[in-house]
Design goal:
two-stranded antiparallel sheet; Cell separation protein; 2 strands; mainly alpha; 243 residues; DUF6683
Length: 243
Amino acid sequence: MGKTFKYLFIAIIVGASLFISKPAYSFAGYDFDYIGFQIEQDTLKRTFDYYNEVTGTNEILEKSTNSKNTSSKATIKKAKITFKSNSDSRGLDYFVNRYPANQREQARTYFKTIQDGFPQVAKSLGIPTNDLSTGMAALVAGAYMAYNNVSLNDDYMKPLQKQFKEAFESVSDYDKMSDSDKKYLYDQMVILGMTLTLTEYENQQNPNSKTTADLRKAGKDILEGMFGVDASNIKITSSGLSI
């Protein structure tokens, strides 16, 4: 995701000024416990477990070629994973409130710039906004880049988002979520995923061993928390995600 995110990164430097000039400092404020919270709620984890059961594959998000499984999958009512835009700010507030009171205004400027810039990024990548599968794709891509200290090609994102769309739509619990709750989850995934991506990009331009180590740990925690396998076994290519 080099070119698209490079342009957004430049915009954020202008919008957030000195806050982005210390990527390790801004990165250090994150609390990744919300991933654990979502896993405790079991919805995201069951997204992948149920997908595997339906497709009959041991590889999360890999399409099955088994005709019987394909037939079974066709009978499943698809959950609604999109939402109407609303004013819920809990996702943004979650990250801002991780900072001391005297730093929150600056933190809000930084995270809000990321949040407001994401629709342009999504449009450039050909993926929808206000869709939980897009939020998940942004989070997983950011974690993957942070863990591996690499950049991803822009054209990897659309296949990745489509895989998550199919997986998310197979879990009926998403129908029980309000638009506000969906936006809350979506905003958290987008903000965290984009921040990992941007911090990784900045670290590639100005390498710092501590930032590299922090990014790797954060990426590892997220990937392993989501998929339940060693992060080194997870690959993202032009075909999407495989384990």
